[in-house]
Amino acid sequence: MPVPLAWRYSIWVPFRDHFLTEEPAHKKRVAVLLRRLPPLSGAPIRLERVRGLRDQRGEAHAGAFLRARCIAFDCSRGEFPRIFIHELFHFVWLRLGNPRRRSFESLLCAQWRAKSRGELGWSA
Known about the structure:
Low-confidence stretches: 1-15
Oligomer: single chain
Number of strands: 6
Number of domains: 1
Distance between the termini: 43 Å
Shape: globular
């Protein structure tokens, strides 16, 4: 018998409450993407559209503000899935711990030594 999600994770948040947004398009796109990921836990993350988003290097497609639990987007509809997943995993990375981070670092180093193209299938 499968263990209920509420027992497997220290903090359980219903699927619909993981992300808070005023953008109807974000709600639909995020729901589709989350069906392809393992279950998430943690406090909700706010999604915002910010026109003209920039960082110190210039224009930015998105930014994750971990302490504020917010992701700001300024990207096209076609770029949204890739950018959303990238920004979401900044929150995952924060909670992984050093052994798992080092394991991922080893994976990337092995790809670099093998002269693989891109990073895990994406152009770098």
